[in-house]
Amino acid sequence: GIFIGKNTSVINLQGKTMIPGLIDAHSHFGKTACNLAQGFDISPPPFGTVKNIPELLDSTEDNTIKNPEAGKTISGFGYSDIDLAEGRHPTRFELDSVSSEHPIVLTHFSNHIAVGNSLAIEIMNYQDPASIPAGGIVDKF
Question: Is the peptide bond before 46 cis (omega within 30 degrees of 0)?
């Protein structure tokens, strides 16, 4: 049953439903919207089709060909190192093999990791590990 004590405030909603405010302190709605608007899907099955790094590179190359303008950023999303047959992230050198005229940035499914080709890294003006802010991390693949 329902407990109603002497300090309980009862509000009759007349058949309507009330739920507590839902606050999502860690969402990626904005990033997801950007991914869908500007990028191409490189997710593994069952959501996508990319099972290995050659397929990831082929998809990236296909999307580079669709955007022939040099300097245009090529942006893929949804890759998963743990689901790729190689069990690792793609390297900047592998992305360099796709294009050195386009910055290429591939975002991990977590939206917390991205890999870029050498041109993307150059445009970011990456210096060296000594310049990484306290608490930050940059891995080199």
Answer: yes
Q: What is the pLDDT of residue 139?
A: 67
Distance from C-alpha of 90 to C-alpha of 124, rounded to nearest angstrom: 18
Q: Which residues contact 73 (CB under 8 A, 6 or more apart)?
A: 102, 103, 104, 105, 120
3-class SS string, 122-138: HHCCCCCHHHCCCCCCC
Q: From CA 83, how far away is CA 138, in angstroms rounded?
A: 22
C-alpha to C-alpha distance for 90 and 57, rounded to whole angstroms: 9
Residue 58 CA to residue 109 CA, distance in Å, equals: 18
How far does Cα 31 stand from its chain's mean position? Answer: 7
User: How far is residue 120's CA from residue 76's CA, in Å, rounded to a whole number?
Assistant: 13
Task: Give the amino acid at 73.
Answer: T
Contact (CB, 8 A) for 118 and 100 = yes
The amino acid occupying position 89 is H
- Over residues 70-88, the mean pLDDT reads 95
- pLDDT bin (cut points 50, 70, 90) of residue 65 is very high
Q: How many C-beta atoms surround the C-beta of residue 67 within 10 A? A: 15
Q: What are the φ and ψ backbone dihedral angles of 119, each rounded to 5 degrees?
A: -65, -40
